[in-house]
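@channel sequence for tomorrow's demo:
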Amino acid sequence: MAMKSMGRSSQSVSRLIWSQSILVRGRDHLLSSPPMNAFLLRTPRLGFRYWTSDDLPLARSLWSDPAVTKLMASEPWSNQKVQDRLNTEINNAEIHGVQYWPIFLLTDGSFVGACGLKPYKPEERIFEMGYHLVPSAWGKGMASEAAGAVVKYAFQTLNLAAIFAGHHPDNAPSGRVLEKLGFRRIGEKRFEGTGLMHVTYQLTVEEYRTRHGGAS
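structure tokens (generated this afternoon):
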């Protein structure tokens, strides 16, 4: 179920996806960022855009890496699994207006991973946030920077009621990123990909506004 307030934006999202597809189609390489004006979000170092059906090589460079998927799956992802994930991201954008957007360095266009939102309890305006970074981007503060931009976008632009998040029990750094952004731990939940109980967090719009001086 798509959120009502995002219904109007869904059409503009679809047009944006289409226009960006035209921008990237036919290029000799896909492991680079689109033109600066094609970014949905920008931070001091990062640019976010939408996935397109032409981005399979880009998706494979992220989700075919066992170092990336070891904390989200019990075994390495097959090519078909990566294709399925790319399809899911594109479908989420078309239906809900959000996805785990691919992100790039603004300096040289290097692909550094994906960060964004997916439906969790859309009827309650609660979406889930997550991020997956290529190993070369680890330990540089990019997870915090990307996730912070997504949180701001979720509350100030999409008007979500809350954001849910979780992480593998062995991934303490992700917990620190979430706590730094104001998320509070709410419990544990079995994650289908690993079969393990993952630590879960939530951040409500009221908590976000209190933390940021009433920002809306």
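heads up for whoever presents: Residues 42 and 48 are 6 Å apart (CA to CA).
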